[in-house]
Amino acid sequence: xxxxxxxxxxxxxxxIAAGEVVQRPxxxxxxxxxxxxxxxxxxxxxxxxxxxxxxxxVIDNGKGMxxxxxxxxxxxxxxxxxxxxxxxxxxxxxxxxxxxLASIAAIAHVELKTKQDNEEVGTAIKIEGSEVxxxxxxxxxxxxxxxxxxxxxxxxxxxxFLKSDTVETRHIIDEFxxxxxxxxxxxxxxxxxxxxxxHLKESNLRKRIVAIFGNKMNEKLVPLxxxxxxxxxxxxxxxxxxxxxxxxxxxxxVNDRFIKSxxxxxxxxxxxxxxxxxxxxxxxxxxxxxxxNTIDINIHPTKTEVKFDNEKALYAILRAxxxxxxxxxxxxxxxxFNRDATLDTPYQFKDKPAxxxxxxxxxxxxxxxxxxxxxxxxxxxxxxxxxxxxxSFNTSYKSDTGSWESLYVNTYDSVSQEKLFExxxxxxxxxxxxxxxxxxxxxxxSGVVLxxxxxxxxxVLYEEFLTNITVKDANSxxxxxxxxxxxxxxxxxxxxxxxxxxxxxxxxxxEFTKESVVIGGIPTSISESQISLILEQLLDDxxxxxxxxxxxxYDVMAKSFAKSLAIKTGTVLxxxxxxxxxxxxxxCKEPSVSPLGKPTFKTLTLQxxxxxxxx
Length: 615
Prior knowledge:
This protein is α+β, with helices and mostly antiparallel strands. It has three domains: about 10-200, Heat Shock Protein 90; about 210-330, Ribosomal Protein S5, domain 2 (2-Layer Sandwich); about 445-600, Ribosomal Protein S8, Chain: A, domain 1 (2-Layer Sandwich), CATH 3.30.1370.100. It has 17 helices and 22 strands.
């Protein structure tokens, strides 16, 4: 039998490796930015075109590479970060595996320009699909410029799996933010399609966070600072009043490397116990400095998961640190059993006798109405039965059964029972019943229909919005006073990218700045107070790719609008409102599912109901 095992060609092996390293344009951005940091750069610029699909270029002023290194860096497992296996357990750099550039070069057109400080000229190399096209001497600035063009040009199937430009740009910005927050001492710039998105100057940690997420973030931050024998914790948590329903702004960094950890996230949530509303999540930017030999960062291809030697100790210290900071800055109530000197008796009063308690005298015969005459007052009667001392009641309020108190209670009971009777009567004659302020029960000939009121309303609003946006001409209502809404720079970029779609829906934008947008008109179907809520929900849906934006931004917008404006669980509906919602639902094209595919109602036939009680 002939041999069947063979070695893969280098270009095929590189493409397979690229599948692990390069999942989308953001993966390339992460690798190139980390290489620039490892090169000792103090200024890094990221240039993008078409969400990185056409161009990703990183320019740094680091130490650069020699001619030999410039050629060798594109070979598989070529690295300057480790010499032997022991170095894997004492890493102080970002990259170390040596397959990033080789993988990128296998699936894109790559152009490299680099020069060291002590050299007069640099080196330029062009590579297409792992094949070196040219290598020549070039005049260039100190540092490295690496341009990645036409990503996945030779793997069209992978390129087709990429999301819309808006979604891919969001992923790139996420990676950029993580790297920039980990290194506030480095200046960063980000340009997309010729527009400047970020221009971050060298600064401290707090200023860097504020520069990325907007000036409003500054007032939200509560600092953390704790140092122990096994680790140092620094950073910030946001005040509980600024908690969000989404988990977007939650960042952990270990030795200046972004990581994800549900275990550590649980510790932070535990520290906020009792301070957050149900369903809300805290915002935090937490940095850990630990000895490199106590962590393993090689357990995940993207190096975002880290294994700690002393996880339980880290959990306890983190929880205590967050709790302490919230209490120290009067964000959370604390018990302090230490004596507060400001509450002590002043020195000059120390030896003086204690102040006696003043006596209070009351005139039991005082009556403010004694000299007032009321024309409609009944004649005074003498009775042995006691009457209330309050001037608001007199003997004319007595009933045959007892005092005014019993009459008042009986009257209240009779009124309540009458209202209850009327309510039952109204419900019995109606066609719908509301259950637990969440469901609507409607009777039909064959049985009953149980409807989820919020999901049903989402379906109604979704089809209404989609029709108004795509079929009809969207109507706008001009605002008497334009509204200025603040967003982060990345959110402004995302809103600007879908500006034409939002205008088709009825929005009118007067001005865009780096941190705010001025809105002069809104769709007639929404109110002024709902604008911020709708835009925030739309941004969250685009960031989380729920739903997939590859079909149309109109569809995303209609689903986000419907989810934001639909009646919520807990809303009390009148019988007329219930019937209107039911009628509108069954007038929809797809009444059985919500815009996100959840069932809106369940039908129970009489046979199914009988079967419940037949056993």
